[in-house]
Amino acid sequence: STSIFVLEYKTKTDAAKARNVLFCVFIRFYIVYHNLISSALSLSSVLTLCNHNAAALKMKSDHCAQGWKFFSGKCYYFSTDEETWNASRNACVDKGGDLVIVTSPMEQDFLKRSKPGSGSEFYWIGLTDAVVEGEWHWLDGTKLSQTPRYWAGNEPDDWKGDQNAHPEGEDCAVMELSSDSYLLLDAFCNEESKKHKHVCEAKAGM
Fold this sequence. Notes:
Elements: H1 2-62, E1 69-71, E2 74-78, H2 85-94, E3 98-99, H3 105-114, E4 121-128, E5 137-138, E6 172-178, E7 181-187, E8 197-203
Parallel strand pairs: 4-8
Antiparallel strand pairs: 1-2, 2-8, 3-8, 4-5, 4-6, 6-7
């Protein structure tokens, strides 16, 4: 009878150990399963975000014609050829826009970041004092704010050329763009020897 009792005790003990082992295996499986589910949900969220961003980028690029850059509801075109101010404006109008009107520091930063190539370059913009000397207005009629002041040092100076060769003076503005600066200078509007590149601006969805 003692042998039977010992055998029964051993059997119950082994069964208890087996249950403990099975329980531990179940717990480990549950933890692994839970981690896999959490990872899958996290990856799914990341994938959804990536798809959303890709769709947003595609929607933005679709709003602008090829070769134009999108920013804040508008499209911008940086020319590679150099023209006079009037010829540059005509080129922008032919493309469905006009020379750029810069209205905010954010737009200035966008122009600096988006300028093709490296180094500093000059671009015609939609700013002139051709109507009244010294009164600078954007092409939409808005008067240029002097605060903050973006004119380069000693600009605008309305230089009339050597020996007063250009009595009309410098009535059109160029912006000097580089990765870390945005400055305005006045220049001759239609001097063939003083051509510059230009930036066009148009509403998105053109």
